[in-house]
Amino acid sequence: MDSDRGHLRISDADREAAAQRLHAAMGEGRITLTELEERLDAVYAAKTFAELEPPLADLPGPGVVVPLAGGVPAVPPREQVHLNTEMGSIKRTGDWPVPERLRLTTSMGSIHLDLSTTPTPPRIDVDVATGMGSVTIVLPAGGSADVDGVKTSWGSVSTKVPHTPTSSGPHLVVTGSAGMGSLTIRHARKGLKDWFGA
Length: 198
Known about the structure:
2 domains; DUF1707 domain-containing protein; 5 helices; DUF1707_SHOCT-like; alpha/beta; disordered C terminus; five-stranded parallel β-sheet
């Protein structure tokens, strides 16, 4: 890193871009959940580019995140992301980079992914392994999912979205196993009827 740049103050966008790189590194198996939490603490406490460097130093790519013009960080698209938790929870909401392939694994924890308010690829291949945990995927209106490739023994697979692709939302092709856990795919809830299943 340029030493003249190290003293410069970073923005919230710089911190968020660095945090996304760390989440991607955990999904790729480069760092553990404990390491992720420790590094995120350092990222959100950082005030300058020099302080942002250590949590990212041993990861592939540039040492620090360089923002684009206008302060928007350059976050390269990823083709596949692996989200894994043993007994904890992972939650993705808001605007986040949805890849074309997702691998979701949990032993006794929970994974909650909200795809309803962020741009998505037209098709997303999802491989799940729930163990005794749970996976919930929320789709925007028009989203659909094919779950025929999911095997279950004592677990459950619940989908409340169309099985075939539509022209107005992403289509999920889900494979893997529910084991003794649960897989739920639904649309975003907009009103009381959706919350109470009416």
